[in-house]
Design goal:
This protein is an alpha/beta fold. It has a single domain, classed as Rossmann fold (3-Layer(aba) Sandwich). The chain is built from seven helices and eight strands. A six-stranded parallel sheet has the order 3-2-5-6-7-8, with helices on both faces. Strands 1-4 form a two-stranded parallel sheet. α2 runs parallel beside α7, α3 crosses α4 and α4 packs across α6. It is globular, with a radius of gyration of 18 Å. It starts with a helix and ends with a helix.
Length: 245
């Protein structure tokens, strides 16, 4: 067996192991945070990271990532639970309401896992966004479509099926004018979204040995998210120093 083949097998096995651990972890978290968005006041010039979960999950599965973001960046985090079934535009409207509930002149980072990442970009590109949004990040989001979605008889299944009108519109809009910066993070062992987990524009990050659910807890993913938030914070600090000087 060639070295390349051995590496591929190791990554595949590691992906299976991590995915099993992630699913077990989510089983202990999924019953938490089953609620809608709440009003949030944050003092000016701070960072708020809004996280949006994927299909058949709740905001509870995002708790570990929220904890890491808060501890390593000092940013505030918020999330909400949306029901399974409604289409991407419906989830995007939930995001819009949650963003409006954040008071203050703050920097807002939007991060979505799976369909959450699709909804985040739909909000930014199709619903007018918000001037306080500084970046969007997606984790394992099926921008190129998810083949199993064809079997899900609900609006969201139609929206994320390969070749859907909604995904085509998002891709075209991103290519023509990205606007808000975006980072797509994909797992190379993601069998739910086997390909196409990247927006048509923006940065791309690939994580070896990682599946769909385990992306939320992988140290590399956490580090990438934290670094993107920290970069925005550092740039803001430089601007503030120049104004003060």
């Amino acid at each position: 067996m060639s070295d390349e083949r051995k590496s591929s097998v190791r990554n595949s096995l590691e992906g299976v192991r991590r995915e099993a651990v992630a699913i077990a972890r989510q089983a202990t978290l999924i019953y938490r945070d089953v609620r809608g968005s709440r009003p949030m006041w944050v003092r000016p010039d701070r960072d708020v990271v809004m996280l949006v979960h994927g299909l058949f999950a709740t905001a509870g599965v995002l708790r570990p990532l929220r904890r890491d973001i808060e501890a390593r960046t000092g940013a505030y985090t918020t999330s909400f639970t949306h029901p399974p079934g409604p289409g991407i535009p419906s989830i995007a409207r939930d995001i819009a309401r949650a963003v409006r509930a954040i008071s203050g002149d703050v920097r807002i980072h939007l991060l979505g896992h799976s369909i959450g990442g699709i909804a985040v970009r739909y909000f930014v590109q199709e619903l007018g966004s918000d001037s306080r949004i500084v970046q969007t990040l997606s984790i394992g989001s099926p921008f190129g479509g998810a083949p199993p979605a064809r079997l899900f008889p609900a609006p969201v299944g139609r929206d994320i099926a390969p070749g859907s009108a909604l995904l085509g519109r998002l891709a075209q809009g991103a290519r023509e004018r990205l606007g808000v910066p975006h980072v797509s993070i994909a797992g190379l062992e993601d069998h739910v979204v086997p390909s196409g987990a990247y927006l048509a524009a923006g940065e791309r990050v690939s994580v070896a040995g990682c599946g769909h659910n385990s992306l939320l807890y992988h140290p590399r993913v956490v580090a990438e998210v934290v670094s993107r938030i920290a970069h925005v914070q550092a740039a803001a600090a430089v601007r503030d120093a120049r104004v003060a000087g």
